[in-house]
Amino acid sequence: MSTASAPSAALAHAIVRLDPISLRTKRFSALTTMILPLIGTAAAAYFLATGTFTATDIWLFVAMYFVHMFGITVGFHRYLAHKAFRTGPVFEAIMMITASMGAQGPVMWWVTTHRRHHRFSDQEGDPHSPNLHGRTFKQRLHGLWYAHMPWMLSPENSKWSVFAPDVLRNRRLMYYHRTYPVWVISGVILPGLIGFAVEHTAMSALTGVVFGGLARIFLANQAAWMVGSVCHAIGGRPFDNEDRSANNWPVAILTFGEGLQNNHHAFPGSYRHGVSWLEPDLSGWLLAGLGKAGLVWDLREPTKQQIQKKREQALAAAAAGSTKGTE
Ligand SMILES: [Zn+2]
Ligand SMILES: [Zn+2]
Fold this sequence. Notes:
Blueprint: H1 8-14, E1 15-17, H2 20-50, H3 55-81, E2 86-87, H4 89-100, H5 107-119, H6 137-148, E3 156-158, H7 160-163, H8 165-168, H9 171-178, H10 180-199, H11 202-228, H12 249-254, H13 261-266, H14 282-293, E4 296-297, H15 304-326
Antiparallel strand pairs: 1-3, 2-4
Helix pairs in contact: 2-11, 3-4, 3-5, 3-10, 3-11, 4-9, 10-11
The structure holds zinc ion (2 copies).
C-alpha cells in the first residue's frame, strides 16, 4: 500500500545500485527478451502478409498467449507476489514454469519489483510509474513510455531480503528462479515442436517458433506492460488509493484482469481483480473455478462490507476535494 510520502531512508533500504557487471548482465538479458521477440514479430508479419502460415500457427499463438498470461497473472502476480491463494507443489510448478515462459524476468526479480511497485506506488521509488517525469504533455508522454519498457534497464534493483525474504527462504521457488532461462527457451521451442508434430514440415517448426514463441512473447508483454504504464494514467478510479492506479477495461481484457489496477491497489491481497463478477477478470474467474475443483484453496477476497467502506471513503475524499476546489 502507498503512503503519503516515501521517506528517503526507506528508499535507501529498499533499493540496491548495481555494479557495472551486474548492470550489463541485467541490460543484456532485458534487451534480449525484448529485441528477439520484436524480430520474431516482424517475421510473423511477413509470414502473414505472404500467406506462409497455417491455422496451426494461429492456434499456437492463441494457446501460448493463454499459457503466458495465465502464468504471469495467476502464478507470478496473484500467487507469488500477493499470496492471494494457496496450492500444492504440482500446480505451483505449472504456474512458475508457465510464468517464466513469459520472459518477464526470473522469479525473484519479478516478485521484488512488483512488491516495490505496491510499496511506493506512483511515488519516488516506484520502479515503473508514468507519473514521476513532469506535468507537461511531453513529459507525461515520456513517463508513459518509460513506465512501459525502458524502466527495465534502470541501474538499480529491489533488495531481495527486504521485499521477498519468504521467497528467498523457499528452496522450491528458488529452483524456478535459477532455471529461468531453461523455461524461456522451452516456451519458444515447444510451439515449434507442436507445429512440426501437426504439420510435418520444417517450415511449420519455424512458423511455430515465430508465432507461438517469439511473436507471442512480444505481443503478450506489450499488453502486460500496459498495466504499469496505461493503467497508472488512464481509466476509472472507484477507490481512493492515494496513487494514480486506474481501471482500464480494454487492457483488463487483454491481460486477464490485470488492467483493473485501481481495484487491485485497493485490495492487493485479493485473488480477484474484479470487485464485481461483471468486470473483465479472466484470471479471477479461472481461479474461482480452480478453487471449486480443489486445485487451489484459501482464496482471499475482501468482504462486501470492506468494499463498501472503501467506496464510501473514495466518495468522501472526492467530496472533500470538490469542496476545497470551490473555497
Ligand atoms: Zn499498479
Ligand atoms: Zn500487484
